[in-house]
Structure formats: C-alpha cells, structure tokens
Write a structure and sequence with these properties.
The strands form three sheets. A four-stranded antiparallel β-sheet has the order 3-4-2-5, with helices on one face. Strands 1-9-10 form a three-stranded antiparallel β-sheet, with no helix packed on it. It has a three-stranded antiparallel β-sheet with strand order 6-7-8. It is globular, with a radius of gyration of 22 Å. By secondary structure, the protein is an alpha+beta fold. Strand 3 (42-49) and strand 4 (58-64) form a beta hairpin. The protein is built from six helices and ten strands; from the N terminus they run E-E-H-E-E-H-E-H-E-H-E-E-H-E-E-H. The protein starts with a strand and ends in a 33-residue tail after the last helix. It has helices at 28-36, 67-77, 108-119, 139-143, 186-209, 239-247, and strands at 3-6, 16-22, 42-49, 58-64, 89-92, 125-133, 151-163, 168-180, 212-216, 222-226. Helices cover 25% and strands 27% of the residues.
Amino acid sequence: MAEVLEFRVPTGSAQTLLVWGLEPEPGLEHSLFLAFSKFGLLYSVRAHRNAAVAGPGYYAVIKFYSAGDASRAQRTCNGQRLFQRSPLKVCVCTKQKGFQQQAFALNSNKCQELANHYLGFNGWSSRIITLQNVSGFDSENEELGRTLQKRSVKYLCAVEVTLPNHGVRTRGVALGEAEVEKSEDPLEFVTASRRAQKLAAGKALSSAFQKILLIVLENGKVAAEYNSTQEELTDSLTEEELKRLVQVNELSLDQHDLEEEVLSDLSFDDELPSWEMPSN
C-alpha cells in the first residue's frame, strides 16, 4: 500500500514509537538514533526520565516521517536488547480520541533533509527568484517625530523548487524580519539584514515544499505530485509579474504555520544558501 508524505511535522500516532525499559547511559538519544534510523528517516528522538511512580530508568518518544518505517522498527526492535543489557519494549503510540495535534510546516533544513532522503541529492533543485528589501517605518512614530529605539529590517523572498524527474515545479513566497538592536550601529544593521534575508529565504523554501506530496510505493520507489490544495495566487504569475509585485510590496501573504527556523543553522558568517541568486 502506498503512503503519502507531506513536508510537515509528523503528528500521526502510527508514525510515533514509544520505547521504555531504557537504562541510563551517556549519549542515550544518540544510541537510540543509531538503532532506529536504520529503518527510515527520523524526525526526532526524545528521551525522558521515568516518573517517580514508574521506578528508575528512562523512556523515549521516536517520530518517523513514514508510518511504514515506524511499523517495521517496532516489529524488529520490540523485545530486543539493541545497545543495552536488558530488552526494550517498543510499541506504536495509540491515538488519543478527541485530540488532534496541529501539523506545522517543516522548517527549511528539515524540508531539505526529507527531500534528500526520498528524492536524492540530485533529485531536486531550488533557486531564489527575487529577494527584496521591503522595510518600512512606523508612520505614527514618524509623524510624531520620535526617534525609534528599535527598528526592524524586512525582506520578501520568492523561491522556486523543481523536481526534474517528476515534472513538478512549485513556488514559495515569505517574509523575513529582524530587529536592529542598535540603530546607530551600521554593523548591527548589516547583521540584521543578513538575518532577515536568511529567514525569508528559508521560509520561502519551506513554503514551496508545502506544495509537494511524496508518494512512497510498496516497492520503495517514490513518486511526487503537486499538492493543489496549497495553491496560491502567486503560483500563476510570471517571474516578472512576481518581481514587480514584490518591488511595490503589494503581496498579501497567508503564512503557513511553520516549525521554528533554526537560526543556529543559518550562520551569519556564511553566504545565503547556494541557490541561484537573481541579478540586480
């Protein structure tokens, strides 16, 4: 049976394993990752100390992107010692009735990780169509002649993702904003600008991936389709039309609920992601 995967944080009970009977040891989460990542790509591994009433030891919650991978891991690992002396108990989490967790969009790093796993490093590409400074000032404060203690820098970015082997091409548009802590410091302004650019590019990339569905077949092959339920007005525009809209700041963005971008992975010492940049 085929399984459909979206570029969203996995929330299904069938994708989540509960592991208990864990013995305390240094690097426990790393050991769990090595053991369970053999069955498929993992979203997260979290180990927790048992409640006092449950006695000493630890339990873990492991999230897979694929329910099929989680099921194989459960069947293989339940009752096995793996990396410790006593056997582990592994079960698929049961669904809680009446409780539906919101599925956030994956951040750009997780999107790339998922795409690389199922499509291959050469199975997709991305490029920046446009990246524009759309910063503005608080008009009320300007009218009053006040000196703003904090200013913000805003960039609007449009990114295109292409899956050449599947004939799929999508776009994402997003806004990145960063505060300028010391407005009189030129270096602070440059740093905030780079931060806003990287946030905008990362969010736009994530937005483009939201329009892609991965279909994992029983034989392990992967197909990809355009997710028309995520279609936006900007998808039908030409590149020139999109650039003009960005330049005059007429876009009204309905931002996806996005898993927090990991800024530590967007180092200010590095250049923007190695996508094709538009010429100015």
